[in-house]
Design goal:
The protein is of the alpha/beta class and 193 residues long. It has one domain: Restriction endonuclease-like alpha-beta roll fold (Roll). 37% of the residues lie in helices and 20% in strands. The protein has a six-stranded mixed sheet, with helices on both faces. β5 and β6 form a beta hairpin.
C-alpha cells in the first residue's frame, strides 16, 4: 500500500492504466504479476511487499527478476522514496522506477538523497491516447555485475561450445574407427577428378 493514503481519482486511473500497459509490454518475456490500486495479488521478499509489477522468469522457478514501481505526479515524494523505493531497492530482483517525464529530476534527487539504488528509471508521457516510455537512467555498476554473472555461469540446459575435433587435435569416435589408410567417399571422389 502506498504511503499516499488517497491518490486523486484521475491519477489513480492513469496509474492503473500504465500498469496494464507495462503488463502487456512484458507479457512475452516474463510472467507478469500486477498489483493495481489497492490489490495485493503478487508479493515479493520475506516481508511480502506488493510492488505495482513483478516480472518473473517463465521457467520452473518463477523467480522474480524485476520489480517495477509506477509513480504519478503526486506520488514522487520523500515519503514514497523512504517507504517503498528503499525497500524495493534492497530486494534481490532489479528495481525499475517509472515516473512522469516532468518528475525525473525529482526522482533522481530523492533516490540520491535517500541512498536508494534504482537499476533503471523510465519516464512516461502521453501523446494523445498513447503512452510512451523512455529510458532515462540505467545504473552502470548493476549492468556490469549482471554481465559478469551471465558470463560466469553457463545457462542451464546448454552445453559449452566445444572446439571442432579437427582443430583441437582430438579424433572423433568415427575417425578413430576408420583404418588409417581408408578415406571418406567425398575425399576419394576428389582424388579421382
Amino acid at each position: 500500500m502506498s504511503p499516499i493514503l488517497v491518490r486523486p481519482v484521475r491519477e489513480q486511473l492513469e496509474h492503473d492504466r500504465i500498469i496494464r500497459l507495462l503488463q502487456a509490454k512484458f507479457r512475452r518475456r516474463f510472467e507478469v504479476g500486477i498489483n493495481p490500486g489497492t490489490e495485493q495479488n503478487t508479493g515479493v521478499g520475506s516481508l511480502l511487499m506488493y510492488p505495482d509489477l513483478v516480472l518473473m522468469a517463465q521457467g520452473r522457478g518463477h523467480r522474480p527478476q524485476i520489480v517495477i514501481e509506477v509513480e504519478t505526479g503526486e506520488s514522487v515524494n520523500h515519503l514514497e522514496a523512504l517507504a517503498e523505493w528503499a525497500h524495493f531497492a534492497r530486494l534481490r530482483p532489479a528495481f525499475h522506477l517509472y515516473v512522469p517525464s516532468g518528475m525525473v529530476e525529482v526522482a533522481r534527487r530523492l533516490s540520491g538523497d535517500n541512498h536508494v539504488q534504482i537499476n533503471e528509471i523510465w519516464s512516461y508521457h502521453g501523446v494523445g491516447e498513447e503512452i510512451r516510455f523512455t529510458l532515462v537512467q540505467r545504473t552502470r555498476e548493476v549492468a556490469r555485475t549482471a554481465k559478469v554473472r551471465a558470463s560466469a555461469k553457463p545457462q542451464s540446459g546448454t552445453r559449452p561450445k566445444s572446439v571442432p575435433a579437427k582443430r583441437s587435435g582430438i579424433r572423433t569416435k568415427s575417425a578413430q574407427r576408420r583404418k588409417p589408410g581408408s578415406q571418406k567417399k567425398g575425399a576419394r571422389r576428389q582424388k579421382r577428378r
